[in-house]
Structure formats: C-alpha cells, structure tokens
Amino acid sequence: MSLEALAKWDNKVIIDQLIMPAKNKTSIEDLKTELAHLQGRLEGIQKEEPQKFKVIDLYSWKSPERLYVPRNNKWFLYLFSLILIVILVLLFIHEFIIIAPVAAVGFVTYIIATVPPHTGEHKLTNEGINTANHSYLWSEIYDFCLTEKYGETIVNIDTNLNYPNRLTIVVGEGDKVRIKEIMAQFIPFREIPKMSWMDHITDYLSSKFHKIAS
Predict the structure, then answer these.
(1) What is the pTM of this model?
(2) N or C terminus: fewer CB in 10 A for the chain?
(3) What is the percentage of the chain residues whose pLDDT exceeds 90?
(4) Do residue 42 and residue 104 come from a single domain?
C-alpha cells in the first residue's frame, strides 16, 4: 500500500470515529425524547381512566317502597269473606294442602293493606338503578314502561335476571318526565305495558274487588 493510500485510509478511520459518536448521540437523544413523550401519554391515560368508570348520579327521588291504598272496614270484610269461602270450598273437595297457602296469602294481603310502607330513595346513575338497597346495571335491564294505578305513577322495569324479573317503583315525589328521559337513554321504553294472562286476571280481579269493597 502506498503512503498516499495509507494516509487516505487513516483519514477515513478518523472521520468515522468522529461521526459515529455524533450519530449515536443523536440516536440516544431521539430515544430520550420518544420515551418522555410515551411517559406523558401514559400519565394522561392514567388520569383519564378513573374518570371513564366514575359513577355519576343523574337523578334521585323519594317515594313509598310499594303502592299503598288505605282500605275501609268494608274492604276487609269482603277480604275475609272471600278467603273463608275459598277455604270452605277447599275443605269440601278435600284439598287440605292448599288451605295453608290461601290463608298465608290472606294474611299477607291484610298486612300490606294495614301497614303503610316506608319511604325509600331511588337513584338513576350512568351505571344503572339503585333502589331498595339494591343496585341493577343497565345491562341487566331489558326495558321499562310507565303505568297509572290508584292515582300513582309506577315505573315497571323488566330485567334479564331470574329474580327479580320485574321491578316496580312508585314515582311519588319524583318527576316522571325526567325519569323517563334519563332511562330512555340507556334502555328501551315500552309505550304499551307487556302483560301476561296472569297479569290481566290479577288486574281484573283487583279492580273488581276494589270497586265492590269501596
């Protein structure tokens, strides 16, 4: 190798040694900048994450825990007369096993008619409904409708659960328009209530008995 070629080769090595640290330095600085950027994004996500799952109260109201209608003495007389007739018929046809449940239903009906319900608080949130010390997620609810009974507005809620498959909440002091608007944002609103044949029979007998005993 000539002296001139050797000199060129030495110069190339020296130049490469000077350039490589600069390149490495630039690469490390870029990595540091990118790492700082990623850390900033991670901190932003961590700050936003709790807000995403934060439960927000949308509306709350108080009302009786169940529908309550004061009854007079005539109503109780008809009630006990009806239960007595049913028990006598069951005795006549020797259906002794059914007598106990009929008597129990009569007793529960008497308690419900004589003891006023407690006032409970109901709350609508972005997560679901809180009522009667229980929480129900919107995903656990199928649909809802509003009905009127004995001068009270009732929110009927059908669930996807085995129990309870239906919730009934008295509006009471609440704003039924506001309740409907909020709930309709999360679950379907049914204009006409969905009723089974048992519901129709129960409502029919209840209305007839109420008119007779009034």
Answers:
(1) 0.62
(2) N
(3) 33
(4) no
